[in-house]
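Hi there,

I know you've been waiting on this one. I reran it after we fixed the sequence typo, so this is the corrected version. Both the input and the resulting structure follow.
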Amino acid sequence: MISKEKQVREFKFSPSLEEENQRLDKFLLSKLGFSRSKAQKLIHNGNVKVNQKIIDIPHHRVKHSEIIEVQISPPSPTTVEAEDIPLNVLYEDKELIVINKPAGLVVHPAGEKKTQTLVNALLNHCGEEILKIGGNERGGLVHRLDKDTSGVMVIAKTENAHNEIAHQFQERKTEKTYIALAWGTIKEDTGEINAPIGRSIGDRRKMSVFSAKVRESTTFFRVLEIFQDFTLLELKPKTGRTHQIRVHLSSIGHPIIGDEVYGGKKRIASSSLKGIKDKIERQFLHAQKLRFYHPKLKKIMEFSAPLPEDMQYVIDWARKNKSMQNVKIKY
């Protein structure tokens, strides 16, 4: 039963016997058509009651005898404006858009930063309808890349596409491939970094493998090429934790070149790359490929983006420089 209000939407459900013992967040996902993250946000914010008591635990198991009530406040007036920011579009249809995000572009407005983000660009390119896809001012985003990470991103243009693709990310059914330049020589041809990640105890803006509250995190890697001071890597994260690849490589003593946050910037001055340090202005991490299931076309799709100029420049320079020729090619 749904009662519609002008200001607040109210929903009331009673689970069937078949639905009994489902997680609360998954139950709401099926009833409201939201993404799981949005359902969890409603629960954490105290917008969900079970038998007239607020439940803030997404993994609560629903019972046939329970009455579940949900209140959804109207979205706040938007403060995000469309901006004519160029987009490198790899693919687009009525359901989604795939882009090659440049390094330096912030994905989502946050805090006082309401301009010069990917969402501003999407609003200009796709129209104002995209701003509400996935939630207020979310702009259809189903995943993110750090400001200084370049590469492939998929953005939903319909609520159904957002829910379906977001579910694929949550259930680890997408395949993401990254390319990175990491300091030092990695001896193994392939390997797995299995280290739980959580918020850093000393700095809440950073992530760390040393944290009081960690979550399972796994990254697979393959060595592509070894130079005198650094290694060219292909990486496939199994999980999708914040800063995962950057934290994992730093944790094994091979931080990404140019990564100021996780120790990859300070090595430049004492390395063979010091002569071209002006070419290294960000962490050298690139989302090269993304593979997912298109919810409307009903087929697997894969998109790739070539290495950006700054990363390619350093690789080409190292290949040509004889002093760098401690080279081992793996592909």
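Quick highlight: The longest strand covers residues 285-294.

Best,
R. S.
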